[in-house]
Amino acid sequence: MGDRYLTDLTDVLRAAGLPVIELDGWRTRARGSGGYDPGKPTHVMVHHTASPPSSSGEGDAWYCAEGDEDAPLSNLCLDRDGVWWVLAAGATNTNGKGGPLDGVPADSMNTYAIGVEANGGYGETWPDAQTDSYLAGVAALCDHYGLAYVRGHAEWAPDRKVDPAGPSPWATGNSTWDMDDFRHDLSEEADVALSDKDIDRIAARVWSYPAAGEGSKATRWFLEHAYGIVRRYLGGYQDDSPLPEPTMLQQIHDNTR
């Protein structure tokens, strides 16, 4: 059984300026396996509850914490007004069957991910307060815990899940969110791994220049403008670090395909 409980979840969210409500018992609440193992969590998994517009964030929070036989179903629940309900510090049954993905074995994501359920996703447009808070909260979690991956539930279990979905900055109609777009927006706020789409865009732009050799002025010009994105991926680069060479961008592309 894992013994790592994320008892500072409230501190992380409040430090990001987000409103937080603590559900009684959250510091010791977990699935049967207990807390996380060393080196975990590695992911944030984002969901929606598929609750109707008449539902309340508090009702969804209690249901996710204790209302289902498989509860707790998530660590956090995000209300429509941007308020974060903190439900469980240990691992939760937030993902179920799916995968493998990002090195996580099939049907094992529950012990790798912080789960976030968001109240709604029943066809109504997501409020700006909620989507803004979603980005800010997930960014804070990634930064504080050093998490490399942010995934939507539908990416883990595409044969049975569609969430998160619904009208939002990342989807039209009731379609599933474009998680590459979500991660792109998230990268503006947190140091998370680039999506495959971002990596392809960077590599294609660099290597499409006619004279994209080691000393190419065109390549150097592009790197100066792409530097912020590249630095996020490389992790160790600071604002005053030397620019990465073009060969390094090619390595990024090759090593992530």
Concise overview:
It contains 8 helices and 6 strands, in the order H-E-E-H-E-E-E-H-E-H-H-H-H-H.
CATH second-level architecture of the largest domain? 3-Layer(aba) Sandwich
How many strands in all? 6
Unreliable sequence segments = 211-215, 227-244
- The domain count comes to 2
Looking at CATH, the homologous superfamily of the largest domain is: Peptidoglycan recognition protein-like
Radius of gyration, in Å, reads 19 Å
Strand order of the largest sheet: 1-4-3-5-2-6
Strand content: 5-15%
Tell the overall outline.
globular
Supply the number of helical segments. Answer: 8
* End-to-end C-alpha gap: 34 Å
CATH topology of the largest domain: Lysozyme-like
What proportion of the residues is helical, as a percent range?
Answer: 25-40%
Mean pLDDT: 84
Question: Could you name the CATH class of the largest domain?
Answer: Alpha Beta
